[in-house]
Design a protein that fits this description.
181 residues; mainly alpha; single chain; 2 domains; Tetracycline Repressor, domain 2
């Protein structure tokens, strides 16, 4: 949670070792570097906190999938028991040159989410759930932008109900592409 709260560059080795209850030597013995520990933390985040995205995108109906994704983001990003927002979408947007590999790793993670969204939307088009002229890539970027915006809003203090309102407006726009079934 230290990386999530402070960011990669903001979290010092002292912050990390204090949070983990270990010495710097133990940290380096276990992870070899701060960057490797960060990669592990991102993996932990994806498996535990970000798991709602996989569950949502597995839904057979694309609109149910998108609704679950946006609703999950509203709840997870505003959970009061941990740092607000998405650890991946708000992390390392700007960084020092020496941390560029971390920023690039996170950009790949965000791109992977967009690819998963685009693939799910394309399946919805193929299944006749969305209009055949729907631009899957543009719609995926729209949903991605909404989710990233919700993350920033949560970091700035937006509560669950406020994020749910954003999700509801986005869903109203997304339903314009749905084919009644």
């Amino acid at each position: 949670m230290t990386f999530w709260r402070l960011g990669f560059e903001g979290a010092s080795i002292a912050d990390l070792t204090q949070a983990m209850g270990i010495t710097p030597q133990s940290l380096y013995a276990a992870f070899t570097s701060k960057a490797e520990l960060y990669r592990e933390a991102i993996g932990w985040y994806q498996a535990r906190i970000g798991g709602f995205t996989v569950t949502a995108l597995e839904q057979p109906d694309v609109m149910v999938a998108l609704e679950g994704l946006l609703a999950g983001a509203a709840v997870e990003f505003s959970n009061p028991t941990r740092p607000q927002g998405c650890m991946i979408s708000t992390a390392v947007l700007v960084c020092a040159d020496e941390n560029r590999p971390i920023a690039e790793m996170l950009a790949r993670e965000r791109d992977g989410m967009l690819d998963a969204l685009m693939e799910r939307i394309a399946r919805g088009i193929a299944a006749g759930q969305l209009a055949p002229d729907t631009d899957a890539k543009a719609l995926a970027r729209f949903v991605g932008a909404i989710i990233q915006g919700m993350s920033v809003q949560a970091r700035d203090g937006a509560e669950t109900a406020e994020l749910e309102s954003i999700a509801a407006i986005a869903l109203a726009q997304l339903r314009r592409y749905a084919i009644a079934g």
